[in-house]
Amino acid sequence: MAPTLQAIRGMNDLLPTDTPLWARIEATLRDLLNRYGYQELRVPLLEYTELFKRSIGEVTDIVEKEMYTFTDRNGDSLTLRPEATAGFVRAGIQHGLLHNQIQRLWCTGPMFRYEKPQKGRSRQFHQLNVEAFGLAGPDIDAEMILLTARLWRELGLSGVHLQLNSLGSAESRQAYRNHLISYFETHYHKLDEDSRNRLHRNPLRILDSKNPQMAELIATAPLLLDHLDEQSATHFEGLQSRLDQAGIPYTLNPRLVRGLDYYNRTVFEWVGDHLGAQNTFCGGGRYDGLVAHLGGRSTPGIGFAIGLERLVLMAAACGLDHTSAYTPHAYLIMVGTAAEHQGLALAERLRDQLPTLRLTANCGGGSLKNQFKRADRSGAHYALILGDAELANAQIAVKPLRGSDPQQTLTEAAVVELLRDV
Ligand code: HAM
Prior knowledge:
- The chain is elongated.
- Helix 5 (138-154) runs parallel beside helix 9.
- The model has no long low-confidence stretch (mean pLDDT 95).
- The protein has an 8-stranded mixed sheet with strand order 1-5-6-11-10-9-7-8.
- The chain is built from 15 helices and 16 strands.
- The protein folds into 2 domains: 19-168 and 228-317, BirA Bifunctional Protein, domain 2, CATH 3.30.930.10; 330-419, Rossmann fold (3-Layer(aba) Sandwich).
- Helix content is 37%, strand content 21%.
- By secondary structure, it is of the alpha+beta class.
- The structure holds histidyl-adenosine monophosphate (HAM).
- The site of histidyl-adenosine monophosphate (HAM) has 25 residues, from strand 6, strand 10, strand 11 and helix 11.
- Histidyl-adenosine monophosphate is lined by residues 83, 85, 113, 115, 120-122, 125, 127, 129, 131, 259-260, 280-285, 303-305, 307, 309-310.
């Protein structure tokens, strides 16, 4: 026998027992974004490698260590998208969606990063990605955060915390960069290898180090918030004031730098109590320089992405009810050849009259007992039974499968009335 093949490490199947919760969450997201006036934009899973190098930054974990990159048959270097912002900006420039326009856009789908798999971290994972273009003020920053806060409320999440920081303008970041370099240079002997490599190429990335041995040094490093330019400070105050007015609590975290290079000014993350080590389930920020950097006309941008695996873990921990929308209302049992031949037509008539009815028709035959077992396992409220006796009288037997109500024999019209209320 050939050896059985397994899924690639870090690429998970979502089983039928998992998907109802995913579908419930995805439906909530879609509806919420629609209500806030965001439109869906779908971009490819594959892009030229150059796009990610130029946008995320050459000296980042994602670009240096985590991308799935290969050469195609044409000799081009392609990469499976590790995130969607770069693709959005590319598509926005390519289709003329950005200049002098306001766009509120979103997409959802798989992303790929070669990371060490663990709870809440996989190599193929899914994001809801939301971006807005053409808005420079703090109002849209606040709108995005309010939108996420509403989403958590609609999903019934508890134990969620918002962290905020401002990275300032490109210029103030440059000044801060120099402070950081001289700080880390004076502590050069304490830097790990990664940080030494990054010291002159991208010192901000050192602040993002996950190495516990670096924690103390990072804790006493100079703060970006202390080097903020005036306009960025005003922008940041504008955001905080709007969040205060809307009653959204947050913590200022001056160490929050995010793992991608394109950010300026506002950055934020939502962390969850129920997630263990990988506790950031949503992160984003402003990237006012990215469109111009990728060759478009200068257009401000801001966005965030939610890690859907982590959101699903949070929702499950908070007891989000998801199965009820997927269990059948009724299961149709057919006994005997005549019933088997007429049963599917009956099922179609019921579906015609009750468009929201969830009805599973038995397929594959089986004894009455066997079909009852399947009906019970499906979670259906009712078993509808069609046999020779019922056919002879133009009736259907209806047995409630939950609770202790007795079995009844009803006309088709009466069955429709009964099922109208489930
Ligand atoms: P990010 O922080 O790299 O940002 O990813 C956003 C979220 O995706 C994380 O907070 C996390 O929940 C989830 N995530 C990331 N990597 C993994 C993984 N390996 N397994 C499971 N979940 C993961 C971005 O991707 C930016 N593009 C967000 C953004 C949009 N900024 C502006 N616009």
